[in-house]
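Interim report, section 4.2 (structural modelling).
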Amino acid sequence: MNKVKIFLCENSMDGIFTAIYQAWSSGYGHANVKIEEKSEKNNYSNFELFSDYIYVETDFDKAIKVAKSIKSKISMDVYEMVCRVALSNYQGKGDLIYRFLILGFHVGSSIINHLSNETVNKVFKLSRYVNNEVHHFLGFVRFSEHNNNILISTIHPKNNVLSLIVPHFADRLPLEKFAIIDGNRNICALHLPEKSWILVDAPDAKSIISDYDINKYDEYQDLWKNFFDSIAIEARINPKLQRNNIPLRFRDDMPEFLNSSNNPILP
Amino acid sequence: MIVQEGMSIQKKLEILSDAAKYDVACTSSGVDRGGNKSGMGNSLACGICHTFSADGRCISLLKILFTNECIFDCKYCINRSSNDVVRASFTPKEVCELTMEFYRRNYIEGLFLSSGIMISPNHTMELIYITLRMLREVYNFNGYIHCKAIPGADQALIEAIGWYADRMSVNLELPTAESLKELAPHKKRKHILKPMRQIQLRRESNMEYLGINNKYILKEDNSYVSQANLALDYIQNDNDIGEVMTERGLTSFNQQSRPKGSKYVPAGQSTQMIIGATKETDYHIMSVSEVLYSKFDLKRVFYSAFVNVNHDNDLPSTINGAPLLREHRLYQADWLLRFYGFKIKELLDEENPNFNVLMDPKCNWALRHLDLFPVEINKADYYTLLRVPGIGVHSARRIIAARKSAILDFKDLKAMRIVLKRAVYFITCKGKMMYPIKIDEDFITRELLASNEKLPHGVEKDITFKQLSLFDGGLM
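Predicted structure of the assembly:
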C-alpha cells in the first residue's frame, strides 16, 4: 500500500491554498494526498504514523493562482464559501477544501446545489457557521473612544472573522480612526480616514488597550447602559430568550453587560 | 403635568427611552445603502441586531420619544395626558448627537424617533422634521432612520419628512374603529389610514419617477398576497378603509423638491396593533393585516401583546402575564401570509375565528387538509413544499437546489438539517414515507401534540388538550 503524503501547511487562507496547489500538482493522485493545517493556537500538529510529511512553505503566487482558478473556473460564490471555510476553526478544513475543489472543478458552479453530497454539505454548513458569526459581530462589536478620537474594539470570535467584518466598518465609518482587535488571535485591523484598512499582528495589543482604558473614560458608555436598562419591558423579562439571542461568550466585550444589575441571571 | 427644567441628558434619555419601549418595531431592515465618503453610515437590507435587552427583544435602533408630553389621553398608553409621570423633551440637537455618538460606537443601527403629541400634531411633526433634516444634512448621517407619522399632521409635513426617513410608520393601535374610539378617544381611524395611504402613493410615484418597477418589488417583498380570495368581505363594512382607498384629494407631488439622491421612504412602512386589550378575534385582526399588506403595501404589521401599564379599570388585567402565546400565533400566521402564500381565509373563518393555542397555524391547517398529503419531496413544487408543517422557506429552497443533482431520501434531508419532527407525517421520499403512518387526523394530531412544539422562551402552553366534560361520551 502506498504511504499517504501529508502536506502540512500554515493555518491561513494562503497557507491552505499553497498546499492545495502543491498537492494537486505533485502527481501523487488525489487518493494519496492529504492536507493538514497546523493548529491555530500554537502552530502545532499531531503527527500520523505511516505517512510522509511534506512541509509547505506559504507562497503567495501559488495561493493567488488557486484563488484565481476557483473564481474563473467555478464561481465567485464558491470562492467566498471556500474563504469562509478556510477562516473557520474546523480542524481538517484544508483537506475538506481540497476534496470540495476536486468536485467543484469537475461539476462547475452548480456544485453548491449538491447538498446531499457529504463534502459539499460540510462546506455549506461551515460557511454558514462562519457567516453567522460574522453577522453577529456586525452588531456586537463595541467601540470605545480614546485619546485623539480613536475608536477601539476588542472581540473574541471563535472563527478568524476579523478580515470579514472590517470591510463593513470601513464602509460605515469612512472618516474615523478605528482599530478592532481579535483578542484570541492577537491580530488587529487598523483603519485611518480615507485610507484602506490593514491587518497586522499585534501580540501586545491587550496591554496597550488596558493602558488606554485608564486614560480616558467614555461617558457615552453610561448613557448606553442607561438606555439598555430602561428599554426592557418589566412585564416581559426573559433571560432565557436573551441568552438564546446573545450568548454569554459575546458579553465580556460589551459594556451594557458589564458590572451592573443587568448581568445575566443564571438559573 | 410635571415638567422639569434643565434636566440632564442622562435623565432625559432614561425617561424618553422608557416611554418608547412599548413600541414593538425595532427592525433596521429593508434598505441596502453603501457608505458615502463624506459622512457616516450605511445600511444593510437584512438589518442588524446590536444587542438584546433583558426581555429578550432585539435592540437595533436608538428607540426614543422626542417628547413624552402628550395632549391625547389613550387608555392603554403610559404617556397619556391624565397620567402623573415625569415629562421631558429632547432638543433636535440632543437627538442628533446621541444618535451620532451611539452610532460611532456601533451601539445602534440608526434612530427610531417617535413622539408624544406636544401642543398639536403639526407642532410635533415639525420638530421631528427639523431633527431628521439636521441629522441628515448637518451631521451627514447616512444610517437607518425610522420615524412615526403623527396621525392628524398636515399632508405637507408627511410629504417633506419622507425624504429623510428610511421607514415610516403610523400605528393602527387597534384593529377596529369602535375599539379605537373606546380606548383612544382623541385618535380617529381615518387620520391613521390617511397618512398611510399618502406615504404608499408617494413611494409608488417616486419609484415610478426613478424607473423602478414597483409592481415587481411589491411581488418580491410581500410576495404572494394577491387580490383574489382575500377576506375583504369580512371587513367590507369597514367604511374607513374604503373611504381612504378611494380618496383622490392629495396635493400634487413635486419630484424636484427632494433632497439630492434621496428616495421616498425606501424601506416602506410598518404599523402595529395591540393584541388582547379589546374583543377582536384573531380572524378579524389577521383580516385587517391582510388588507394592510395587499392594499396599503405595508412591509410589516407588528402585534403587541397588551400589558396593562396603567391598571385601567376599563381594560383587561394582565397580572398573569401578557397574552404572549396569542401574539406568537399571530406572528406565525403573519409569516404564512407574507412568505408562504396563505390567505387568511384558509387558516380561519367565522366559525373558528381564533387560532388553536395548542398547535401552530400551519399544522392546524394541514391537519384539516390531509387529503393534500403526503407530498413527494422530489416532485412537489416550491409552494407545495412550503405548506408542509416543519418545512420553511430555507428548507424548501435547499430541497429544490439539492434535488437537481440527486434523488433525495430521508437521510439526505437529515444531513441537510431539515427538521423532520413534524414533516415526517406529511411527506414521502421516493414514494415512501419514513415510517408506516396512518393518515388519520386524530392519530397525527396526537403525535404532533406529543412532540412538544418549540416555542420562544417565556411563551408557555399551560393548557391541557381538552377539558373533560361531565356530559361527554354517554349521553350523545
